[in-house]
Amino acid sequence: MRSHLLNDMTAERYRRSVTEGVERVANRLATTRRPFTGVTPDELAPVVSAIDLDRPLGDASAALDELEDVYLRDAVYFHSPRYLAHLNCPVVIPAVLGEAVLSAVNSSLDTWDQSAGGTLIERRLIDWTAQRIGLGPAADGVFTSGGTQSNLQALLLARQEAKTTDLAKLRIFSSECSHFSVQKSATLLGLGPEAVVSIPVDRDKRMQTVALAAELERCRAEGLVPMAVVATAGTTDFGSIDPLPEIAELAGLYETWMHVDAAYGCGLLVSPARRHLLDGIEHADSVTVDYHKSFFQPVSSSAVLVRDAATLRHATYHADYLNPRPTVEVGAPPASGGLRGRIPNQVDKSLQTTRRFDALKLWMTLRVMGADGVGQLFDEVCDLAAAGWELLAADPRYDVVVRPQLSTLVYRYIPRSVTDPVLIDRANLHARKALFASGEAVVAGTKVGGRQYLKFTLLNPETTTEDIAAVLDLIAGHAEQFLGENLVHAS
Ligand SMILES: *Cc1c(COP(=O)(O)O)cnc(C)c1O
């Protein structure tokens, strides 16, 4: 069994084994023409259940053969130009290379003595991101597992910085289109069920700042305490960007923490054409970025950035066996400012302890492609969304919501002959399901004003307007068939 341990004596076995795995995936990618096979849970579950985990195959080739059946053949492939559903991106090769390196070396980024250079690389990328945002010289941050964790940590800091310790009095303001992790975080942080005040959006699905101002004023008048305003820079459903400069002004006026959830929109930080859409983000006290959404990075790769490094002390706890007090460097300038002889332990800034070296993927990406290279890919999908909107707007079969700022299109099939809104909802739901079952394309669904809509989240620069047009035809076909069957039935 020791021959399976990765070490100096098994380097050759490692090379062969991983190479074989890479070969399988490469073949799969080269021959997969659809995003999905349409397999159902009922078909696949028995295949997985039938495997006896207590009877190992003993050899990687056999395990890879088996993996074809339980996973690889029927996986959902985001690299397919017709995968248009959720905020999943195709990944860039330098990042996948980074992933292979980081899992083999297996650094853990909690302390310097488990990572060394890994810690410095992560800190450089945090500084680089903070600089792109414009957070100023005292900024800092840390990589996280995803936007959900980044938002939780940002709101933890905001809670600790708030002007009261009476949790029942704290209020968080975010738009009705903000991510559900805001609500989840509020609960985890011990705030009451009323803590998150939902601010209405305008026609473009951006937070109405007049309503925000009114709610902040009402909060103050009622003797409550504004804990944070969460602006979303790229809502999950519409890609809409809240008016950051106006929100910053109000946050300043009411002396409250401003968090920008740029989990989706962070790709604009490197966009040669669209960086201005994030103007105002530099006023934030904290920012969430998901490199695994718009930087074409494999899951997971995310970070939370803060304007004032000192606020990260709210995540600092000590253990004698890990990061004893003398090594702590609360509020010290980031790596570029010099370490002043202190030992950099990233665990002092993180909610996690053992932590992946996800930063390496972004590092490899920037070293191979450069920031502009990543930003151009994101610009391409935003351009594609704009073209897709034109298609939808000109198509009498479809109703399309807001013109996209990023790369999302929300639309629904509207038959000419049918007026029953429930039937139209069902036709759209059916079309999505039938498309998924066919495996020809994958699209998402959402609700707008209580009605069923469909959604394209475009993150693949290989997707073309022809793909979009073809998928719209497929959806219309499924919806028409459904209506045909159900109208005959009704009459
Ligand atoms: C995806 C998303 C999140 C959550 O990020 P995860 O990485 O999935 O945890 C938070 N906010 C917004 C706006 C998102 O789109």
From TrEMBL:
UniProt keyword list: Decarboxylase, Lyase, Pyridoxal phosphate
Xref: SUPFAM superfamilies: PLP-dependent transferases (SSF53383)
InterPro entries in the record: Aromatic_deC, PyrdxlP-dep_de-COase, PyrdxlP-dep_Trfase, PyrdxlP-dep_Trfase_major
Pfam families found in the cross-reference section: Pyridoxal_deC
Keyword Ligase: no
Cofactor(s) required, per the database record: pyridoxal 5'-phosphate
GO molecular function, one term: pyridoxal phosphate binding
Residues spanning the signal sequence: none
Gene Ontology biological process terms, A to Z: amino acid metabolic process; carboxylic acid metabolic process
Positions of modified residues (N6-(pyridoxal phosphate)lysine): K293
Cellular component annotations (GO), alphabetically ordered: cytoplasm
Sequence similarity: Belongs to the group II decarboxylase family.
Protein name (Swiss-Prot/TrEMBL): Pyridoxal-dependent decarboxylase
Taxonomy of the source species: Bacteria, Bacillati, Actinomycetota, Actinomycetes, Kitasatosporales
